[in-house]
Design goal:
This protein has one domain. It has two helices and no strands. The model has no long low-confidence stretch (mean pLDDT 83). Keywords: Membrane, Transmembrane, Transmembrane helix.
Length: 72
């Protein structure tokens, strides 16, 4: 009876314990880290786009003022 009970106890675990860490890393930690990384990169791209639009508008304004100044 003891042999049967011990074999049932061994077979009752679905996965070895060290696999739970890998499951957590691959299915929880990595997708969340990729989501946060992609959100950060999108925010960085938005900030850089706004900066370059502002810089381009400032450059166009300065060129317009220079052309107006030299045309007088």
């Amino acid at each position: 009876m003891r042999l049967i009970k011990s074999s049932l106890m061994v077979g009752s675990s679905l996965l070895p314990r060290f696999l739970y860490l890998f499951i957590f890393i691959f299915f929880c930690f990595l997708p969340l880290s990729f989501a946060f990384l992609s959100a950060f990169l999108l925010l960085l791209a938005l900030v850089l786009f706004c900066f370059f639009v502002f810089f381009f508008a400032l450059l166009v304004r300065l060129l317009f003022l220079l052309c107006f100044f030299f045309s007088i």
